[in-house]
Design brief:
heterodimer; A: 423 residues; alpha/beta; twelve-stranded parallel sheet; nine-stranded mixed sheet; 8 helices; globular; B: 370 residues; Spore Coat Polysaccharide Biosynthesis Protein SpsA, Chain A; UDP N-Acetylglucosamine Acyltransferase, domain 1; 20% helix; 28% strand
Chain lengths: 423, 370
Amino acid sequence: MGNVVAMILAGGQGTRLGVLTEKIAKPAVPFGGKYRLIDFTLSNCVNSGIYRVGVLTQYKPHVLAKHIGIGKPWDLDRKDGGVQILPPYIGRGDSDWYKGTANAVYQNLEYLEENDAEIVLILSGDHVYAMNYNDLIEYHLLKKADGTIACMEVPMEEASRFGIMITDLDGKIVDFQEKPERPKSNLASLGIYVFNYEFLKEVLVEDEHDPNSSHDFGKDVIPRIVNEKKGNLYAFRFEGYWRDVGTIRSYWESNLELVLPLPPFNLYDPNWRFFTHSEEMPPAYIAPEARVVMSLVSEGSEVYGFVSNSVIFQGVRIGKGSVIKNSIIMTKTEIGENCHIENAIIAENVRIGDGTRIGVGEDARSKLDPKVYTGLLTVVGMNSIIPGGVVIGKNCVIGVGITPEDFKSKEIPSGDFLIKQEE
Amino acid sequence: MRVLGLILAGGKSDKLWPLTKVRASAAVPVFGKYRAIDFTLSNMVNSGIKKVGIITQYNPRSLMDHLGSGKEWDLDRKSGGLFILQPYVGPNRETWYHGTADAIFQNMTILRRGEEDHVLIGSGDHIYKMIYKDMFSYHIRKGADVTLLVKELDETYNLSEYGIVQLDGDMRIVEIEEKPTNPKGNLAFLGVYFMNKNLLMELLYATVPHGKYDLLLDVVIPNLHNLKVYAYKFNGYWRNVKKGIHEYYRINMDILKKEVREGLFYKNGKVYTKLKDLPPPKLTSTAVVENSLIADGSIIAGTVRNSIIFRNVWIKVGAVVENSIIMENTVVEEGAVLKNVILDKNCVVREGQIVVDERGIPVFEKRAVV
């Protein structure tokens, strides 16, 4: 096998995650009690024996860059190879912000060159899955392909959300539709590509000089290769668990799937560990008066209340008599006594006063952005302080850094929101 | 002031058998994810000490594995860092360490080299949290030659197992009685020494070559009248795991008290330990967990009360665990009942097995199958 270099696209804004990505890039969004989304892709790389990894950042990269650091938790702090953060940069002339996924890789061809890349894996930093990339690369080599796209069969009614592949019997891609209204197949691209370096370089250079291109792999590069028969692309069928937690609803669902008796995604596989950079904390404490079922309760948490069907991150405090149901409570959030929280996503470092109720009443259409906040779930942004006794309905949004003074009334009806205007 | 840290971690401890069959007492697992030495080592790091020597002798494998390069304590450094000081064969000697003073004497090089001017000597067996900085300035203020850490012990300690200290009005130590049958007081020495490095070297040269090998009995006590030995009082939680299985059990159960958790986990800096990156603990729909500590990677489907559950433990449906300590990678199968037991790592308790002991605390050694 040739020298493999992985490029992780981690510049995504994740607009459909609303306040969760107001301050951080989508790959830095916390997941599963102690991880951040990019941990899964990074861990897949090292578990597959790939130790040359470039991470392409752009949107609000601070938390992400701090999280990755020199790659120690993933054993990517290496003399040879290792992880490198590749932010956009200014050169003599044409360099600029990354205009699209293809352009981002194009601007870093030099990095690939330096690392003597022969095979390039293009990955996304915001997917949740466990994949041995060696299987994908072996298939790619076996088929003598120029490029190979990992695909998964999805339900036909969801196919129009994806890039759809049409293959011949050998697995060669003969047609490609990006987010089609009438999909011709249900074989969806997972945004995981492997290319021979020389071929990739050629198509990226060509794409860069096309004034009509938006410089995106899915929208421009892949269709061009297929339509203009520039090279042989194959589809690799992946049959494991894979999720793009792109919306608030899918984010909430994939977190809560983890608490099922037989979760579709296994965090506990000793042969495929997920590594992360997490703060050192003591084991979780569950008090005599507490009751916790169907939940993950991470280290550093102290639970005195009732928790069911929820994911509790590190260092969370849940006071006496409080009830947490169907919710995600992120790192270092403190919940007072006798609160009731249902169907909610509470971000990091939030303080919730005693007797507060969240997620109560009838559902209502979001007054903020019904495309992002599609119903049921109430979201509280990081570092907010909610005073005691407040009642917040369903499908509400409490923004980032809200203080008790921002609450003009003790009640926020369903569908309403409270956010700070950007200065 | 630059301080060199030394941790005595070589002790063999029969009282902790069979937990010490496979490890030194400093490497005994505590509180779900730590080892005893983590506390003293973290205290030193949290007090700004950048060079720490660990003196090992008795079965150090698990201790060495735990410490690694010292990176979890930020001790993987270009200058300073972590030094493992084990007995060695040299051109003109082949000896084990005969005692604490001898162990330091045989590693004189670490004292001779380096720019540190003071030495803090602690033990790997002690569970307490402390920032030593106030003790350092107390030492200077008092113009002391040696400062020893002391604490007033209450009735939960067996005073005749400790060194009992008598003070004058200025906190100077006038007498130390090691393990007295009839203790004259309740002020005990906690095994932490602070002194000038050159003075320590001088004292060691004057004693060890004459066959006097114990730091307390042969070096400090005979010099109480020649040297200004002062006591510095510690008021927080302090216990010694080495005092036996009952003490070990009590220490672990103490962590279920809020004030002990606050003191040991959240005050005076963090406790660092070897990271394992396991997923968060999972409690299933059949889980009942009360007053317990649950570490990462564990899956609880049974009942757990007043217990310490270490990492990667699986308590299956219908199993009941009460007042027990269950260490890493242990599986308790369906319907098994455990009360008042300590299970070492990698044990398996078979379906329906019942181990209930109201009087003693049975200990099952590593890899036991019940």
